[in-house]
Amino acid sequence: MYGVDGLLTLAILFLCGFGLLVLGSASAYNGQARFGDAAWYLKKQFFAMALGLAAMAGIASIDYHALKRFSGAAYLLSLLLSGAVLLFGSAYNGSKRWLSIGPLSFQPAEYAKPAVILLLASVVSQRMGKTRGGVMIAMVFLMVLPIVALVGTNNLSTAVIILGIAVIMIFISNPKILPFLWVAAAGAGFLAIFLSLESYRLERLAIWRNPELYEKGYQTLQGLYAIGSGGLFGLGLGNSLQKLGFVPEAQNDMIFCVICEELGLVGASLLIVLFLVLLWRFMVIATHAPDLFGALIVAGIMGHIAIQVILNIAVVTNTIPNTGITLPFISYGGTSMLFLLAEMGLALSVSRYSVWPGKRR
Length: 361
Known about the structure:
Distance between the termini: 7 Å
Largest sheet: 3 strands, antiparallel
Strand content: under 5%
Helix content: 55-70%
Strand order of the largest sheet: 1-2-3
């Protein structure tokens, strides 16, 4: 057994530090205006990050194979929690996504991501070679369909991420193009039907095409103004104008535009490079994992991070319609940070058993 991947650990810590730095700036105005404390969001994020780093260290120290036996129970719990949101959930900004237990609240949809990764890694690694490719694909999608449906009821963006994770994991285990063409066609049809069920979803497409014609396009336009005004080197950390109430919830989904405004193209590019380093280490660990179970765990985590980063930046730059996806490690969100760092612990646990030339014992 070898030590954990040092470069991956450094990339995670750098992203956490960068996230706290820019969150403290992006959230200061809203924290002062709402709670009389400019550091209110920063303090809560720091607390969640501390818990998450402790969870990461704990998970990284155990043998990831021991988690296989709990994968089914973990997935069942995610179904129960997501169902409970529909019955007893709390709403915030019009979205019913939280479960509250006393003073604490969390989003079960964030827990569903690592639960799905563990389940699929366990099932696919056990059934590989015993089940035909087409049957395997159908079985996987039937397994994740319940959680996608439950989460998608109130959180379409997270449902899309979970579905994307499933597609990536099954493709890595069975890299044949033709079956996925059928999956893509079925997914496009399902998405078209899902969008047509609610008028506000179709409205988002219209806002995306012409944000200046709609009142709800205000956030998109202000975000683009922030990106444009940052230039090459930005206005300086803490000097964003758009975060002063112009970009709604600047500390959440739209934080990337504040980064562009304050740190410019250089700062935004540095953040993207950090994410690329993270994904590169995931790829190295997955490629050299000792078994398919470990490789699929890391591949699922890699898919999760890649999808979420790409979609968030695409939304902020108005490349795709607004979907309300946070930027990993950067956007405010205690539940997201906690389970994201728990996923990092899983990847580090696999890295302890992965072997490649030059790796130190």
